[in-house]
Each structure stands twice: as structure tokens, then as C-alpha cells.
Design a protein that fits this description.
six-stranded parallel sheet, 16% strand, five-stranded mixed sheet, 11 strands
Length: 372
């Protein structure tokens, strides 16, 4: 039996304050704040949570809210008491504080949390939607100012986690020195998408599908994350990671782990994680000879792709950059369930279609009844 500090936690339910660091970034605008809005809309308890945005971008709270509004659209009707404009009410409740991710820059955030009465008995949740290079400076500053430094504090870090294996290990060692590991949550936002969540129900609540889910019936597995947009203002960040680090080694591998994993003991987070890790450890190392890399160029004057410039002409991309905007490679698993089944992962930007799919191609029926 696990000790209490290792029991599954529900940080959003417990939180008295949620602070998004990197609040002016693309991920925060398009994913995090819309998700927070739907929690606010559907759960009365969540409307008591103080939501704060913090970023280096110098703007007023009104300008910040105006930037968020186009991305927040109700997917369900809220209670009548929220009035005709629940989005406006939610945005009005958000506080925005500009500053740097060091102790001096975060001091106004500390003052704000103290002013709203978020004391040591409160749960503070900090969502670090930041580039990997900013994780440790921000974590050190939060710790040095003792912002939410009690055992009830939670720190969420959004992928990517470092640049490679050694940089991740160094980052994790430092974070573990500053905080109890039970307070740290490593987040890949893609695993909360409906497609990923439905994978568990499709596989483990469906006896018919479960009997087909193996090398006996599956001929090959294909996972695609294709986008028809370019880097859209994220080129400077994207050039440091490329498609392999930005998409394939997190979103795609997380999805693949859900496809390959065996049934977990329960749907508790630790049990699901253990099965995903086991599935990934069965993967053979990718053969470079199977990999394909590419970089998008300017689109046509009109029609699909119009207005897209060469990747190397994007603002923030250094001249001569060889960062890949398209990547594809093949994998093999030596797990008994999947041995011999080819696995193909591919992802890219500025393509002629937008889709995210998991395709299991089945083996042909080999009985006489299938022949004419």
C-alpha cells in the first residue's frame, strides 16, 4: 500500500488559486484558459478558485482578457445565474500580472496571492506553460519566495521536459531538491483530448475489441498528427525543438503507449502510467534508415497553402536552419502481443490536410468463404 503522500491527488479540485506562468503564450490562450473556463462553467466549486495569469508580456489585464476571448467558446450551456455572457464573467475574474520569471519579477505575484488571503493552509497550483529553459529559474524563484511552498502546493510542468535525456535528468534532480516529487506533475496536454481518453474505454470496456487488439488480427499501426497551418508565430520556440521533440516524442508516443499497453490494474493514474511505461520499454530503437524528415516551403499564390512562406523565412528562424517541420519513422515492439507488427508515426506542419488519427489496419480474412 502506498503512503498517503503518494495517493492520487486532485489538484484542481483542491486548489484555492491557480496561476498560469507563460499565460500570454499560444498553449495558454488556446488550451489552458479554455479548459479552465469549462471547469468554471460546469462546476460551482471551481468559481471560488482565483485564476491568475503571469507572463513577461507587458499588457494591461483588459488587453490580456481581449487576447483570450476569441479562444474561449462555451461547449455547453451554463446555469442561468451566470447571465447571458458567461465568457465575459469568467474573463473578468482573471487577474493578469506581467513580470520576469525570477525572484524580483515574481514578487508582485506573491503580494497578490497574500492579498487575496491565500495563506499557508491554501492549495496553490502553478501551471508552468514555459519553454524548458525557463522551468528551473521559475521553480527556483517560486521556492525562494515561498509562494505556495507548503505541502499543499502543486507544480504542473507542460512538455517538453528538457532537450534530451541528460537535460531532463538534471532538471528533475533540481526540481526534486526544491519540492517533494509528490507535488510535481508532468503534463502532456494531448492525453486529455477526447481521442486519447476514448482509447481506454474502446480497449478495456469492449470485450469484442479486446480480442482483436493484438498481432493476431492487426497488420500494422499508423499514428498521424498532421496540421495545415505553419508555425504561426511560434517559429522561434519551434526551431529549438522541431517536430520530433514537439510532437512525436511526447504526443505521438503517449498515444502509441495507450494503443500498445496491457490492461492496467485500475484506471488510477499510477497504474495507467506503469502499463504505458512497460509498453514503451518493449519498443526497439528506431532505425534511422526508416526516418523521413522535411521542411515546408512557400505555398502557392492561391488555394490550399496560400500565404505560407518558407520555414526559414519565418520570424525567429535562423538562416540556414535544418529543423524538421515534418518527420516520419517506423518502430517495432518485441512485446509478445505486438511482435512483428510495423508501427508508423508521422507528424508535420503546413500540410494539405489537418487530422489526428490512430489507424489499426487489420489482417485480411484467410478463409475460403472470403474467396469467390
Amino acid at each position: 500500500m502506498r503512503s498517503p503522500k503518494h495517493q492520487p491527488l486532485s489538484p484542481l479540485v483542491e486548489a484555492a488559486s491557480i496561476t498560469v506562468l507563460g499565460a500570454s503564450g499560444d498553449l495558454a490562450r488556446k488550451k489552458i484558459f479554455p479548459a479552465l473556463f469549462h471547469l468554471w462553467l460546469l462546476h460551482p466549486r471551481f468559481r471560488a478558485v482565483t485564476v491568475t495569469g503571469f507572463a513577461r508580456s507587458q499588457m494591461t489585464p483588459e488587453e490580456f482578457r481581449a487576447r483570450l476571448r476569441p479562444h474561449i467558446k462555451p461547449r455547453a450551456a451554463g446555469p442561468p445565474a451566470l447571465g447571458p455572457d458567461p465568457v465575459g464573467r469568467f474573463l473578468d475574474s482573471i487577474v493578469y500580472i506581467p513580470g520576469s520569471y525570477d525572484a524580483a519579477g515574481l514578487q508582485p505575484l506573491r503580494d497578490h496571492l497574500l492579498a487575496i488571503g491565500a495563506g499557508d493552509a491554501s492549495t496553490h497550483l502553478f501551471y508552468l506553460s514555459l519553454p524548458p529553459a525557463a522551468f528551473l529559474p521559475a521553480a527556483r524563484a517560486l521556492s525562494s519566495l515561498c509562494i505556495g511552498c507548503t505541502a499543499r502546493m502543486r507544480l504542473l510542468l507542460e512538455k517538453p521536459f528538457g532537450h534530451d535525456g541528460p537535460s531532463f535528468e538534471a532538471m528533475w534532480a533540481e526540481l526534486s531538491r526544491l519540492y517533494d516529487p509528490a507535488q510535481l506533475f508532468l503534463v502532456d496536454h494531448y492525453v486529455s483530448k477526447e481521442m486519447a481518453l476514448n482509447m481506454l474505454a474502446l480497449r478495456f470496456a469492449n470485450g469484442f475489441m479486446g480480442r482483436l487488439w493484438s498481432r493476431n488480427a492487426v497488420k500494422s499501426i499508423h499514428i498521424e498528427f498532421l496540421e495545415d497551418i505553419d508555425c504561426a508565430g511560434r517559429a522561434a520556440y519551434f526551431d529549438e525543438s522541431g517536430t520530433c521533440r514537439d510532437i512525436l516524442q511526447n504526443h505521438a508516443l503517449n498515444t502509441l503507449a495507450l494503443v500498445l499497453m496491457d490492461q492496467p490494474v485500475s484506471l488510477a493514474a499510477d497504474d495507467v502510467r506503469d502499463e504505458k511505461v512497460k509498453a514503451l520499454r518493449f519498443l526497439d530503437e528506431a532505425d534511422p534508415a526508416t526516418a523521413v524528415f522535411g521542411q515546408y516551403t512557400a505555398g502557392p499564390a492561391d488555394g490550399p497553402g496560400a500565404g505560407i512562406c518558407d520555414y526559414t523565412s519565418e520570424p525567429g528562424v535562423p538562416e540556414g536552419s535544418r529543423t524538421e517541420t515534418y518527420a516520419a519513422f517506423a518502430l517495432r515492439s518485441h512485446a509478445p502481443r505486438w511482435a512483428g507488427v510495423p508501427i508508423v508515426l508521422r507528424a508535420g506542419k503546413a500540410l494539405n490536410r489537418r487530422r489526428a488519427t490512430v489507424t489499426l489496419r487489420m489482417r485480411p480474412v484467410s478463409s475460403s468463404s472470403s474467396r469467390r
